[in-house]
């Protein structure tokens, strides 16, 4: 199947091998002139398209407003007409200044039809908004034109005169009709421009901007204003650490200038670790404490290095900590200051000026959007803090203390005093009194002689109570237990030891010491 290249026929190229160049004209000059012509015609078509589109939209809106003003102007009531004209009198008297603006910003030119003169948009970047007339100004100028037309016919302008009343609405209808003709003609011209644009393929139609990312690199400065560069030292593990050190080389260390090329990459100052645990720096804290937009603007002007994602993250993390501590008002202020940095950073190099000229203006759409963003971000932090607080309470409620032995065998008895079989030791009475002072269910569990029985009782206690009774048991020596080896038949001595009485403290290891641990504590942690 042959490939169709016809869609590239309309591609405008300044350097085209098929174009014949006169031998007396230099090729480079010809190509530059051809390139300028292509760009100039393309820009003219674009401007004309935008002007015609704006002209059509404005004329439609004015015609719609005039249609709605008929009833308000008293088309069928002369008294209402006189009252309405009095309310428009001040603007009609100032119509000459408005007309000057219309003539200056006219899109349709002056073809004898004053209604064609519609305000447009100055394509210069610094267009003064006060130079653009409002819809009321344009309507007042139109009323003044109708009045001038009536006075040209020799009729004295008197709003209470029926003749003036009738001629005014006749003139109004005539202007509305002519606006319709202007819209139709402008639409035809716009169709012609669009048709002409379709004949040419431009770069704007072939490609588009996929993404745009701005990085502002602000190096920290010392008090003298000189740039401070970070130095990095790489530690190296040596295979032979006892070898002699030559020159100025330090054992176990390599200078970063030797380990890396001298030319730094654009991301040499980037350190990912800085973003893992953001700590509030002094300048970040000072910026976060600012309460007014004016103070924020001044600080940002004097300290441009504050505009970075790292500073914003630091302040936001501090806001989270403040909310956890219950300082809600201050936490919300920190959230606002953090978002100011985020907004300014996203706006690029001119971010501070754009932010304080647009977003910081109260009542503007951008300011309302920023305020909503602050509220949403703060609500998210509040919700998250409430969840963490509740989760912490649940963890404390679920925390228990359990016993874990140093030997994996089954325990068959605890070193507790037996009231029915008293021994001859001097501290028997004291140990028995301590045993009787323990909770009754714990006494029964110790008499059972297994870890599971004791742990079952401890699980029903609070961590504080469990820790208290375990300390008492440990002080009295109750937590020493006899044990049975796993391979009972292979060790007769261990079997005999477990079948008899508990060995003394200086025995051969038949006693096992018990430790109290939390459920999430492993044996390695305990060691």
UniProtKB/TrEMBL annotation:
This protein's UniProt keywords: Chaperone, Cytoplasm
UniProt-listed InterPro entries: Cdc37 (IPR004918), Cdc37_C (IPR013873), Cdc37_Hsp90-bd (IPR013874), Cdc37_Hsp90-bd_sf (IPR038189), Cdc37_N_dom (IPR013855)
Gene3D superfamilies in alphabetical order: 6.10.140.250, Cdc37, Hsp90 binding domain
UniProt entry tagged with the keyword Cytoplasm: yes
Compartment(s) of residence: Cytoplasm
Residue ranges occupied by any Cdc37 Hsp90 binding domain in the UniProt entry: 218-400
Residue spans of biased composition, Basic and acidic residues class: 226-235, 245-256, 510-527
A GO MF label: protein kinase binding
GO CC annotation, single: cytoplasm
Region Disordered, annotated ranges: 108-127, 217-274, 484-527
Residue ranges occupied by any Cdc37 C-terminal domain in the UniProt entry: 414-507
Domain of life assignment: Eukaryota
Entry's Gene Ontology BP terms: protein folding; protein stabilization
Biased composition annotated in UniProt, kind: Polar residues: 257-270
Keyword Cytoplasm: yes
Record-annotated Cdc37 N-terminal domain positions: 2-214
Family classification: Belongs to the CDC37 family.
Name used for this protein in its record: Hsp90 chaperone protein kinase-targeting subunit
Species the sequence originates in: Mycoemilia scoparia
